[in-house]
Amino acid sequence: MEGSVGVERPLKLYLLPFLSPGHMIPLGDIATLFASHGQQVTIITTPSNAHFFTKSLSSVDPFFLRLHTVDFPSQQVGLPDGVESLSSNIDTDTTHKIYVGSMLLHGPIKEFIEKDPPDYIIGDCVFPWIHDLANKPHISTLAFTGYSLFSVSLIEALRVHRSNSHTNSDSSSFVVPNFPHSITFNSGPPKTFIEFEEGMLKTIIKSKGLIINNFVELDGEDCIKHYEKTMGHKAWHLGPACLIHESVQEKAERGNESVVSMHECLRWLNSKRDNSVLYICFGSICYFSDKQLYEIARGIENAGHEFVWVVPEKKGKEDESEEEKEKWLPKGFEERNIKNKKGLIIRGWAPQVMILSHNGVGAFMTHCGWNSTVEAVSAGIPMITWPMRGEQFYNEKLITVVCKIGVEVGATEWSLHSFQEKEKMVSRDSIEKAVRRLLDDGDEANEIRQRAQEFGRKATHAIQEGGSSHNNLLTLIDDLKRLRAGKPVN
After folding, report:
1. What distance in Å separates the CA atoms of residue 305 and residue 303, rounded to the nearest whole number?
2. Are residues 294 and 225 part of one domain?
3. How many domains does the chain have?
């Protein structure tokens, strides 16, 4: 191809996702976008995480999309073989070891890049060393984040606020100053997460630009202008990446292998009325105490609506005894709800994109992780927001305050990690009230649903020819080629 007359050499891109499903899945989809537009893309990951990219690899000519694996330093960090993703974590110690192991990938990845250098590295901003990989003049880096631009902008605004403030705003209610929207927080994140956020910002700023798995219409022009003005940095909205999966089969197979068959799930959903089902899922890295799970069960049963509930995998395993199950499920719950087909409990990974795109689903109770948020928006589904940690509290503000496509369940306590037990429990009454606000007939529910559906239409248009994300992708490819050739870009 290089020597063909009149044929421009494709970009050679290396993509480095962090070892968590919320990072690997969207970056795998973005790799497919570049490859489907004729660019040569290599995804670099570890052997046990290769399955996250199987569908991406099978959908594109292998000349344009390939996988390269580097060994995870299991022995060095004290983990058994095969435990290489944060979705495998069972406790805080395992989480820490996986993170440390991911940072040690710097060496083998650098060795690979030196032997076979790319034009550009698109690196997850969780890795502080991605710029060290581009230590040759002809290699540049782009940062990728699993966040919305709204959240990245909020992180920067809060950083400036903390540096200028003489009060401890992390423990009292405050309005974020100098931000395009009026955003109030009752408390701030833990100090350790603040340090993580600020490290991420430094990595972003050093790059040539920031790739976002979102579309312009959701983050909003005000936020984009604010980001570019305050950060002096370009953001590229290329999503929602989940919408490149068009068939039911593709949607069902995105991510991990589901513990429930696509056909079983579809058969259950097909028997339900449009917009009647509550879908409940709190992501792949989640922990709830038995008491909180019990409150969820009581709340959704009291609300009286049909539901699909994805229960954290460490809870509700098939070998769990009835005595253990009774600790978190009310007596007779399964007989009243599961056996009569009013509810469906999925224990483990679920085909979320497929479920959200089904006409029967009318609301989504979510932890506000960005993948889940953008998948719900793409499907036009209103949300019940239940953030737990990290940027999830920022995403909640975008959903409920700015876009007004969801309602808050009332979670206010930030956790540092997935396994931290909450001091403040969300009550069954709060859960019931939030479910009824979206699924009972009423003016508020109808208005929220209409707004959600309008955003869903905008999301679909964004990735189609002529849409904002499609145009961004073509412009980015052109700009990167011009930069490679030493030509100016607009």
Report:
1. 6
2. no
3. 2
Expressed as residue numbers, the domain containing 196 is 12-243+462-484
Question: Are 480 and 450 in a shared domain?
Answer: no
Based on the fold, state whether residues 20 and 36 are members of the same structural domain: yes
Q: Backbone phi, then psi, for 243, in 5-degree steps?
A: -80, -5
Burial of 484 (0-12, 13-18, 19+ CB in 10 A): middle
109, two tokens: 């990845």
Q: Are residues 266 and 140 in the same domain?
A: no
Cβ(311)–Cβ(347) below 8 Å: yes
Q: Which residues have a catalytic role annotated? A: 23, 124
Percent of the chain residues topping a pLDDT of 70: 89
Q: Is 205 left (phi over 0), alpha (psi -120 to 50) or beta?
A: alpha
pLDDT score for 486: 85
Residue at token pair 């605004």? 157
pLDDT of residue 263: 81
Mean pLDDT value across the chain: 88
Task: Of 65-79, 158-172, 224-238, 339-353, give the lowest mean pLDDT range.
Answer: 158-172
The two structure tokens encoding residue 116 = 């076979």
Round to whole Å and give the CA distance between 373 and 387: 11
Per-residue pLDDT tens digits for 364-416: 999 999 999 999 999 999 999 999 988 999 999 999 999 999 999 999 888 77
pTM of the model: 0.90
Lowest mean pLDDT among 12-21, 213-222, 287-296, 452-461: 287-296
